# Entry
Amino acid sequence: MGICRMAIIAVFTFGALACGSDGPEQFCDPDTVHQCSCSDGSFSTQSCLPDGSDFEACGCFIGAPSDNGTSTVDTTTHTDTTPPISDPGQGPTPDTSSNKDTTSVVDPGTPPDSASTPDTATPVDTAPPVDTAPPVDTAPPVDTAPPDPCEGKNLCATPVESISCDGDDLVVCAEDADGCFIEDSLDCSAEDQVCVPSGSGATCVTPGDSCTQPLVLGPGTYTFDNSDYESSFSQYFGCGITGGWAGDILIKVTVTPTTALVVKVSSSEIDVQAILADNCDDPSNGPLECSDTADDAIETVSVTNESSSSKDYFVIADGYNFDDFGSLTVEIQLFPIPGL
# Structure
């Protein structure tokens, strides 16, 4: 039989078998092996299923390992456009199947997060610090203290109350209404008087140069310089004793009833004498007492007013010799006498 006739018989024989089959439609010849392409561009093979309905998955092995440590199998079904490798003696069978992608998606795991890690650190404040300290007051301080009430006043050299003599000026240091010790002076000579020290103080008195202007004094200790006085009264009263030629001082003292008067005259510089009288206008009555005992002695005279009214007594403090001029002290004492 010729080759052409055998081919025709084969065609009709296979066609008849195909038309008369009740099984599934045959896509490929069972056990047929085809070449297939992989997703990474390489090639592998796939076999036709035993029932000829489709090809097995392409046996590709992609190099990257899966999560379980094995290589990922590319199960994608690709359309093989190459002619199948058929059994000997059979012609090529066309591949009319659709390109079915039966790839199973394998989860390669959570991809690494390539995003930059957010910076949660507190940003560094590079701004210059704000100075919250209160500003320094460079203005000169305002003096809020009250003004000194003593400023500008004639203050005493020693801030204590005192009275003293500066020649015939009576110098007074006294506290005023503002509490300031103010120095003031009074010219005794303006009233025809002299300044006489008295104890720790001083006073302006009428010069004891005449009976009309005696020194009017009360109890106290007084210092005089008899160089300022004339010898006017010691001889006039006539004590019956010698001396009394130097300057003498006439003093008047008023004595209240039942009171004793004691007068002491002394000096560390000159010899003195003391004379006591109860009048100044009538020398003929004479003195009540005279005292001139010795040099550097305290000369004392005294009297008691036993009347019921006050009386004036006169004391003369005198230098005994012609040249007995200097400082002398007169101490006047008054003692009440009870029972008189």
About this structure: Confidence is low (pLDDT under 50) at residues 1-21, 64-74, 76-82, 84-91. The radius of gyration is 78 Å.
